[in-house]
User: What shape does this take?
Amino acid sequence: MSPNNYSVLMSVYYKENPDWLKESIESMLKQTIRTNDFVLIQDGKLTKELEDVVLEYEKKYPDIFNVVRLEENVGLGPALAKGINICKNEIIARMDSDDIAVPKRCEEELKIMSKDNSIDMVGSNIIEFIDDIDNIQAFRKLPEEDEEIKKYMRRRNPFGHPSVMFKKSKVIEAGNYRSYYLCEDYDMWIRMAQKNAKFYNIQDVLVYMRISEDFYKRRGGVKYLKSILKFKKEQYKNGFYSLKDYIVTSGTSSVVCLMPNKVREIFYKKLLRKGNKNEQK
Assistant: This one.
């Protein structure tokens, strides 16, 4: 098998926008090194418009597209866990159903993993946008090397989920994705770190991540607060967080979750994003 062979893993559910789904799929099919295995998990029944998009690509690329239709909505973590087991390649590129990858994304990530075989997962810097990629809201500059990524991980999520490419074997060794409301990815990275996975973030923007007012709303409220506090308590109990990490991150999360949505939006943009919206490397 070619070292450039990799799988794409995407999950979609009924609330997604069919135009955005199509744009996301196209961005992954137009990679300078194209996948030979596109695994799309339908997380429960879709709208007719979304199903039509899926059927279009199934018919157009029968040798590449592998669509798994789940009868019930199980949530992102369990849906991705099923997809991991179905992907036929050792290297898997994650992608969300409303984001846009630049054409060289997978080529650049494969290059890093090929140059250093000890790297188990690679991500990139990210630009957040609303509606159109020219309407940039924020630039996410993430830690680069393994040591700084793991240090950063003790306080915040060091990866943009739709930018990552990882080794299937390492994800399975760490226990695969779990159901953890809005913490599925962070939870996965920590468990990989505990299995001595090696990480890297490319310091170029390789993914444009779509956000909206809903993005900030979902990071507030009691439901998310309960999930994130449970998550942080678990990391403290298993020894990944120090007591200081646990207190600082739990306190910060509590304040942010209970803020009014507009204030939380400003907090994210001004304090939780490094760089500025015009900065692109």
About this structure: Residues 275-281 have pLDDT under 50 and may be disordered.
